[in-house]
Write a structure and sequence with these properties.
EC number: 1.2.1.84
CATH architecture: 3-Layer(aba) Sandwich
Protein name: Fatty acyl-CoA reductase
Order of helices and strands: HHEHEHHEHEHEHHHE
Keywords: Lipid biosynthesis, Lipid metabolism, NADP, Oxidoreductase
Family: Belongs to the fatty acyl-CoA reductase family.
CATH topology: Rossmann fold
Structural class: alpha/beta
Shape: globular
Largest sheet: 6 strands, parallel
Number of strands: 6
Number of domains: 1
Catalytic activity: a long-chain fatty acyl-CoA + 2 NADPH + 2 H(+) = a long-chain primary fatty alcohol + 2 NADP(+) + CoA
Number of helices: 10
Radius of gyration: 19 Å
Length: 266
Amino acid sequence: METVEPVVPLDVELPPQLLLGSGKASLDEFERYRSPLKDFYHGKIVFLTGGTGFLGKLYVEKLIRCGVSEILLLSRAKKGKTPYERLASILESEPIFTTYHSNPEHYHDKIKIIDGDISKNQLSISNDDLSYVVNNANIFFHAAADVRFDESLKESVETNVRGTLEVLKIAAQAKWLDVFVYISTAFSNCTRNTIEEKFYKPQVDPHLLIKLVEMEQDEESFEVLSRKIIEPWPNTYAFTKALAEDLVRQFADKVPVAVIRPSIGE
């Protein structure tokens, strides 16, 4: 089996002043630091889902520091705030954006809001926004997910499974696509004693489950049945992430894909 060398040697450390959260790094200082990984992202246009979440905010900061041309951030109105108001609030209040207050224009120039909802068909984005994404995006980072362990199977499927399918469909249309990156979880295959860095096919067809959810009228009866459907997974989150990984596998002959399985973040 061919060994793939990491893009950046694992034993290479960033200078302390360039570490995120150190409070000492500026964008100018980081721009002077060179690495193959940073060079890969430089000048690229990235479509990002989940950019307002725990990991997503880190991706926004890292991508901006790597010199991307633009971040196309999928976001929806929530709690009485428009997507633009939510973004402004996050940039102003989150400590991860260490240089925002000294150079806010740099962030606003780099981020373009794509008004949409990951749980809706076709992401509920406008035709104009869809055309812009398809004709410009080089990289897809799909990090959006319903991470609640006690969420209903219906809600989890709509967001984590069907949402992933909708993003994959758009990525398959992208004219300048370099890679589709799916942010999964280390627990997507927690039913196995040994988990390798490969795809595992679940016992449930994700397409059939999506259709079942869309057709189901009696939600109470469906939720009773869902306990049997997800076995032996411990919760709907891990189960639906496993199904989403299988969708990514199915699209691997259409788009270049990668799956990241991070552990629990706190």
